[in-house]
From TrEMBL:
Keywords: Acyltransferase, Amino-acid biosynthesis, Cytoplasm, Methionine biosynthesis, Transferase. It is found in: Cytoplasm. The record marks S192 as: Important for substrate specificity. HAMAP family: MetA_acyltransf. The lineage of its organism: Bacteria, Bacillati, Bacillota, Bacilli, Bacillales. Its main location: cytoplasm. It comes from Lysinibacillus alkalisoli. The active site is at C142, H235, E237. Substrate binds at K163, S192, R249. One of its GO terms (biological process) is L-methionine biosynthetic process from homoserine via O-succinyl-L-homoserine and cystathionine. PANTHER family: HOMOSERINE O-SUCCINYLTRANSFERASE (PTHR20919). This is Homoserine O-acetyltransferase. The record marks E111 as: Important for acyl-CoA specificity. CDD domains: GATase1_HTS.
Length: 302
């Protein structure tokens, strides 16, 4: 949250140069507070796990947040009961007349397919187009990030020789950027995907800012220059045990998966992994909610 200071306080300029978030009294008096309305398009197969992971992060700020869960109408998940979807989810047709302060689009287990082959792709396109005028800022995760880069910015994905799975080291390209404010110069984060995007294409795109990448895992955090779209190619929201569960699932299916990199102690899958990315996860979600949603959204949508 910002610190409120008197107008023209001399040290204010020094604070701004250091990228300390300050707000002068005049602006503070005119800024009313209301709950933020966040909509989550949950495309994950295990929806309740994704719900818990995301709500845990959205609930760890001083802001009051109202949540709406969105499900695709053109495809019904096989891993969740219809009663759960009926009770807690809505469809795009039911909310497209509304406006939201923020939106989250999750990953989905369809990344090996061409975007146009995904049976709900046209619905996804309609939702992403709608978000440009009806949502202040949208946070896209994993496949959701690749979908946004493709739909909004024309950057496609390519299949990797082996699944990118593990907890990789990343660097921050611009530590003064609001989204990564407070990040360490080097930090770790989980990835779990079969595809990637070109770091050269992201860097060359005039409407995008590459904020973080990994020498091994590639592009990680990308922001549009207008802050409308934030793309996270990994899974900062994952719990400590999530990659282990995926590894066990793929092993049971006979897929002969590689052991997730830099994840299990001593690379031993029999040992319990620890969460080494939790602090940066909370920081990223807090920064997004504060700087890209709360500080940017109108008090009343017209």
């Amino acid at each position: 949250m910002p610190i409120n200071i008197p107008k023209n306080l001399p040290v204010g300029e020094h604070l701004r140069k250091e990228k300390i978030f300050v707000m002068e009294e005049e602006r503070a008096r005119t800024q009313e507070i209301r709950p933020l309305n966040i909509i989550i398009l949950n495309l994950m197969p295990e929806k309740e796990k994704a719900e818990l992971q995301l709500l845990r992060l959205l609930g760890n700020t001083p802001l009051q947040v109202n949540i709406t869960f969105l499900n695709t109408a053109t495809y019904t998940s096989k891993n969740i009961s219809k009663s759960h979807l009926d009770a807690f989810y809505t469809t795009f047709d039911e909310i497209k007349h509304k406006r939201y302060d923020g939106m989250i689009i999750t990953g989905a287990p369809v990344e090996k397919m061409a975007f146009e082959e995904v049976n709900y792709w046209k619905e996804m396109q309609a939702i992403m187009d709608w978000s440009e005028t009806n949502v202040t800022s949208t946070l896209h995760i994993c496949w959701g990030a690749q979908a946004a880069l493709y739909h909004h910015f024309g950057i496609g994905k390519f299949e990797l020789p082996h699944k990118c799975s593990g907890v990789y080291s990343h660097v921050v390209t611009d530590c003064t950027y609001d989204l990564v404010r407070g990040f360490s110069d080097i930090f770790v984060a989980p990835h779990s995907r079969y595809t990637s995007v070109s770091i050269e294409e992201v860097r060359a795109h005039q409407d995008l800012k590459l904020l973080s990448y990994s020498d091994e895992a590639g592009v990680f955090i990308v922001a549009s220059r207008d802050s409308k779209n934030i793309m996270i190619t990994g899974h900062l929201e994952y719990d400590a045990h999530t990659l282990a569960e995926e590894y066990e699932r793929d092993s049971e299916k006979g897929l002969n998966p590689d052991v997730p990199a830099y994840y299990f102690p001593n690379d031993d899958p029999t040992k319990k992994p620890v969460n080494t990315w939790r602090a940066h996860t909370h920081l990223l979600f807090s920064n997004w909610l504060n700087y890209y949603v709360y500080q940017a959204t109108p008090y009343e949508w017209e």
